[in-house]
Amino acid sequence: MKDPHSTRDIGPRVGTPLWLYMVSAVVAGTGVLVVSGLGLGLDHLSGLVGEPLVWVLLCMIILGELRPVAVRGQAMDGGSPTSLPFTLAIVIYYGLPVAAILQAVAAVVAGFARGHAAHRNAFNAAQYTLSLGVADAVLRLLQPALARFDLPTGGELVVVALAGVAYLVVNRILVMCAVAMHERVPLQQVLFKDLRQQLHINAVLVSLAPLVVVAMTYSVLYVPLFAFPLSALHASALMLVRRDHQANHDELTGLANRTLMTKRAQEEISHARQRGGRVGLLLLDLDRFKEVNDTLGHATGDRLLETAAGRLVHSVRPGDLVARLGGDEFAVLLPQVRDTDAAAEVAVRLRGALGEPVRLNGVDLDLEASIGIALYPDDATEFEPLMQRADVAMYVAKAGRTGVESYDPGKDRNSTARLSLFSELRRGLAEGALEMHYQPKIRLSDDRPIGLEALARWRHPTRGLLAPGDFMPIVEESHLSRAFTSQVLDATLARTAQWRADGFRLPVSVNLGVRELLDPALPATVAAALREHGVPPGQLVLEIGEHALIVDTEAATAAVHRLRDLGVGLALDDFGTGHFTLAQLAGLPLDEVKIHESFTAHLDDGSGRGDTVVRAAITLVRALGMRATAEGVQSAALAEAARETGCHAAQGHHFSRPLPPGQVREWLLAHDGGAVADTTA
Question: Looking at domain 419-672, does it have CATH number 3.20.20.450?
Answer without folding.
Answer: yes
